[in-house]
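User: Can you help me understand a structure? I only have the sequence.
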Amino acid sequence: MDSQTKVLKVIQNRRSVRKFDPRPIGRETLLTCIDAARIAPSADNVQPWRFIVLDDPDIKRDFEEKVFSGIYRITKWATKAPVLIILCADLNFVVHQVAEALQTIPYYLLDMGIAGEHFVLQAQELGLGTCWIGWFNVRKAKKVLRLPRSVRICELMAVGYPPKDWAPKPKKRKAMEEIVFFNGWGNKA
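Assistant: Let's start by predicting it. Here is the structure, written out as C-alpha cells:
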C-alpha cells in the first residue's frame, strides 16, 4: 500500500468520538499529535497556534464546571474525555490583521483549522478518538485559563480512546459529480 493510500485510509476512518474509554493518554502520545499540528502550514508562516492540554482531573473538572454549564450543558459529554485540548490563536501578528482588513478573511481561523485537522488525523493514526467542540462558554474558558487579550480560543478538542465496543457509522458524503467543476462553475468532467 503506498503512502497516499495510507493517508486516505486514515482520513476515511476518522470520526467524531463522543464516548471514551477512561484509560489515560500518555503525554508523549499527546505531544506526537501536537507535533503534527505544529508542522501545519500557516499564513506567512506565523504559526499562531497555541495548545493548552487539560489532563489534570482537578483542573479539568473546574474548567468543565464553568465552561459546560447553562446553555452549554449539551456539551457535558466532553467531561468524560480523559483530555481536553484548547486550541488558541495568538493574534499578535500583523499579517493576520492586514490580511483580514484587506481580504475580509480571518486567516488565523484557516491556520487553526489546518493545525486542528493535522492533530485529529495523527490522533486517528494512533488509535485515539477526537471531537471538535465549538459549543462552550468562551468567555468563562478564557477567564479560567487566564489568557491574555491577544489570544483567542478557536476550539476545544475532546481526546481519548474510543470504547472497545465502539463502531463508527459510515460517513454520508456527496458524490464527486456534485462537488467538482473543471475550469469554471458547473463544468463537469
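Now, to help you interpret it: The chain has one domain: 14-164. The radius of gyration is 18 Å. Let me know which part you'd like to focus on.
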